[in-house]
Amino acid sequence: KRCLSITVNGIKRRINEIVTNPKYECVDAYVLDYCRYMNFNSDFSDYSREQFEAYIGESVPNWPEDIYTYNSDAFSSYWYDFTPGKYYNLWIEWRSQVIHDVIAEIRTTLKEIRPDVDLEVWAASWGPLPATGQNWASPKYKAVNLNWWATDDYYKTGYADLLDTFQLGAYLNKINGMDPETIEYALYKCNNMLMGDCNYWGTFSVASREFDSEAAAYLCLTKSPGCMVFDLVHISTCGHWNKLKAGIDRAWEKLGVNSPLKSKTLNEE
Questions:
Q1: pTM of the predicted protein model
Q2: Torsion of Cα atoms, 7 then 12 then 13 then 16, to 10°
Q3: How far is CA 7 from the centre of its chain?
């Protein structure tokens, strides 16, 4: 309990420091990255057990076996090789509700101090994400409940309506087409899952020299209202500056945006 309190209160103090300091008056958004559980195997603390039992209104007699148990060869093959227990689906719902409530607290804190500052979240595009407790969809998006691990009320843990902008982490190698492994499909799915509750940007990784960053930038800027590239060191070391600029210029030309960078050449060094 103390650790969770320190984490949330620590975030609130940071928000207060940033958005009230005159040096940072130009700040127009506060972005949460990795606002989630680490994975399926966290957190099984005494505090989590206490809070989960209060949430479901009954005690869990066999902890954590009634949530799930690893199969005998789990650590020699795949970490997700497990057998769900009686309370597994409720556990997934509860963890998503925890993340939802943390984001709600952060939004309230931020907007009370600076209503003009946007709240944003980055999360991976291959959602919904039961392993990390992130349900970034709209709470109106009930199709998420078609997943075997979802309860009837899981959809209510969606937090899109708490955000101003969602940054969709489409860190995929393929760009165009409606294959589930493409950035274009990720943007299409994201738009459906958010249901208009917030703005969204496409984001992609340029960790490989071979990645077509020009096409990715063009796609994100023409299929979503914005674009974020991960990350600066990869842009520089993998030679993506001018590729990104070409994609941005091409997108802005299609969208009718007059770019001051259009006539400039970027130094890859």
A1: 0.91
A2: 160
A3: 18
